[in-house]
Please model this.
Amino acid sequence: MAEGEADRPVLVRFEGIGKRFGALTAVDNLTLDIAQGEFFALLGPSGCGKTTLLRMLAGFDRPSEGRILLDGEDIVAVPPHKRPVNMMFQSYALFPHLSVAGNIAFGLCQENVARAEIAARVAEMLALVRMPGFDHRRIHQLSGGQRQRVALARALIKRPRVLLLDEPMAALDKKLRAETQFELMELQRRLGTTFVIVTHDQDEAMIVADRIAVMDRGRLAQVAQPAEIYERPNSRWVADFIGEVTLIEGYLGKDGMLDCALGRLRVPADAPKAADRVWLALRPEKLRLSAERPADGDSNAVAGTVVEVGYRGDMSIYQVRHAERALLKVAIANTARERPSFAIGDLVWVSWPPDVGVVLTT
Amino acid sequence: MSAPGKRSWGARAVLLVPYLWLAAFFLVPFLIVLKISLSQTAIAQPPYTPLFDWSDGWAGLKAFFAALSADNYAMLGSDALYLVAYLKSIEVAAVSTALLLIIGYPMAYGMARAPRGLQPLLVMLVILPFWTSFLIRVYAWINILQRDGLLNDLLLRLHLVDAPVAWLASDTAIYIGVVYSYLPFMVLPLYATLEKMDEQLLEAAADLGCPRWKAFWQVTLPLSLPGVAAGALLCFIPITGEFVIPDLLGGSETQMIGQTLWTEFFSNKDWPVASAIAVALLGLLLVPILVYERLQQRTIEGGR
Model:
């Protein structure tokens, strides 16, 4: 599982983990390694079991089967208050009756730590999340972004082996979320702590994480680095879940050509040989659009009619219909200030080098 | 309703309603009681002087105010009977409130933690005793506590006692009756605050190294303090003025202030002293109310 992470020791290992709530299987016989110092994302649609997995690591839910190893030791039987992991909750779960400093100090106050040390560590944490001087504020006096920082500081003060983040940015607006993502990455690099983030936002997972586990219905669909998942999804489901994609069903012939609704197409050299039913996954931004048939003979080229144009500022999204049978999504970056000249009803050519497509068999 | 200064006539009238209500049904009766407390007892109808007489005009008004005196209050202070009754009332109210908290808190906590679907039923069970008249329920306790009553019967059968215990006409009986009668008033406000509490706060506490029993003291209890205050106030105040329960279940050697008031009013026909007792009681009960007000102000400022 830990391909590409062989240089780092494994910190957390889920071993055949299953979790059932009554008749519902939330997590199904899942095995996964998370390396020391990694920023790891659990990504998937709601109900895929990612939060359950995180809660089992925190100790709030007990797995129905399997083992969870932390530093090689099974922690399934260890209650949450004795685990060296801390969690940042989606709703932050800050204590409303305590001040900012009281919240941050809460974890240390449970141990026999000297007052002076607690005060020093709280000040250190407040500086870390860039909120010095907020010690005596009450929680209700803070903005959403500030609460998020306090929650982060509270979860980090005990210097956990693993920091668990449950949809940490779900309550922030888009702009603040983008800023916070980069701050979180910077923080993780500086502390070297292992971060495990649960998110349903694929952009967020791709930006912050070193590695992503894409989950679907309690199972791992793919575990890899973000670029790998985006460029080489291992299934139609992953390709469709991560980013925009056009999937075209077809048959691979003996000659290595793909027979599909768009005609006979060239496929990447690493595509499987002569498989029955396959799908060609094409990312919209990798396709080109032109009025004339491109001269480049090696590329695939398909004629079509523009049926929809979506202007997004940074790029325009075109839907091109080929012979009433297939719909292709093409994204063109608006690098010049003038908007491109294609309009609904225009006849265009969609072209792409064969190696940008991905042939999927499952 | 755009600017506060530009409220329509109708909106103002609506705002006035609660004030009018309070004026008509609290302030005016209170002023009448206050006036009677400053009067002297008389064998007449009504049994006190002076009476306000419009016909005498300005001179009559002057004579009326001149006739008022604080003698009754002075008497309340000088006669130990009243002081003892006040102290007894506060003692009973304080001990009962403490007992109610000890019994009511775990009940409310259990209710708030019960499965969601079960909770309406549990709330229903708590308020179910209200379906029977309060007086009948206190009478039922006489039946249970009397010499050959259910409780002694049970204790004898279990060989826990050799002879019947005299439960009735004692402080124990008062406490049993008060705690039984006021339990819903303690449980409901406590349940309301505990039920609202975010369970995730307890998970957060556990995550930060706080075992469950400790989390109760550090998180649950502090967050339920508004409910504790509301429940305590809702019990303490009416218990202080309680009359029926001590009269039916209590002994004759000590009286609570409600009983003293009743005696003055109905047996001694001394309306002025009875009124003075009532006004003094009100002043006494103002203390916990003001404390509660301060506390609530703090919680409102605390954002909840």
